[in-house]
Amino acid sequence: MALEQTFIMIKPDGVQRGLIGEVIGRFEKKGFYLKAMKLINVEKSFAEKHYADLSSKPFFGGLVEYIVSGPVVAMVWEGKQVVSTGRKLVGATNPLAAEPGTIRGDFAVDIGRNVIHGSDSVENARKEIALWFPEGIAEWRSNQHPWIYE
Ligand code: RTP
């Protein structure tokens, strides 16, 4: 069975609020595999590239400022339908509309401080992983867990 990969980023507010372990725990406990991770500060031009599709939006400037305001945790997670299921774990963009039980529903209030990013399609996941991990990803687990995957 081919497993998908997705790009997940804990945004600066999630890092500053001590939510790194919480986010990682939720993805791990679901049964997804952490394939790559780094804590980094990104340049303005890099944040603009990541959010290029939103460049015409009125909130674009504020969004880029927010992403460069502190370190972020960039991760690649792997698993069955991890892109769409990862978005469910993340919750709706506006945290006040996000269901309790989701990361944004449990830990955030403002749309501009919504803790986490998750790729919204397999194609965008591929692009975002290539952007954030140009060095590539080391293969460290070749066998799927027999108690998680049939
Ligand atoms: P993300 O890309 O961060 O996972 O978020 P998303 O797909 O749920 O939402 P998207 O529409 O791609 O927006 C990206 C991020 O921009 C900020 N935003 N602010 N002020 C506003 O109206 C507004 N709308 C979006 C949020 O931080 C959102 O996650």
From TrEMBL:
It comes from the Eukaryota. Keywords: ATP-binding, Kinase, Nucleotide-binding, Transferase. Its cofactor is Mg(2+). CDD domains: NDPk_I. GO terms for molecular function: ATP binding; nucleoside diphosphate kinase activity. Transmembrane segments: none annotated. GO terms for biological process: CTP biosynthetic process; GTP biosynthetic process; UTP biosynthetic process. The keyword Kinase applies. The active site is at H117 (pros-phosphohistidine intermediate). This is Nucleoside diphosphate kinase. Belongs to the NDK family. ATP binds at K11, F59, R87, T93, R104, N114. It catalyses: a ribonucleoside 5'-diphosphate + ATP = a ribonucleoside 5'-triphosphate + ADP; a 2'-deoxyribonucleoside 5'-diphosphate + ATP = a 2'-deoxyribonucleoside 5'-triphosphate + ADP. It comes from Oryza sativa subsp. indica (Rice). Its EC number is 2.7.4.6. Pfam families: NDK. Major role in the synthesis of nucleoside triphosphates other than ATP. The ATP gamma phosphate is transferred to the NDP beta phosphate via a ping-pong mechanism, using a phosphorylated active-site intermediate. This NDK is microtubule-associated. Residues 3-139 form the Nucleoside diphosphate kinase-like domain. InterPro entries: NDK-like_dom, NDK-like_dom_sf, Nucleoside_diP_kinase, Nucleoside_diP_kinase_AS. Homohexamer. The keyword Nucleotide-binding applies.
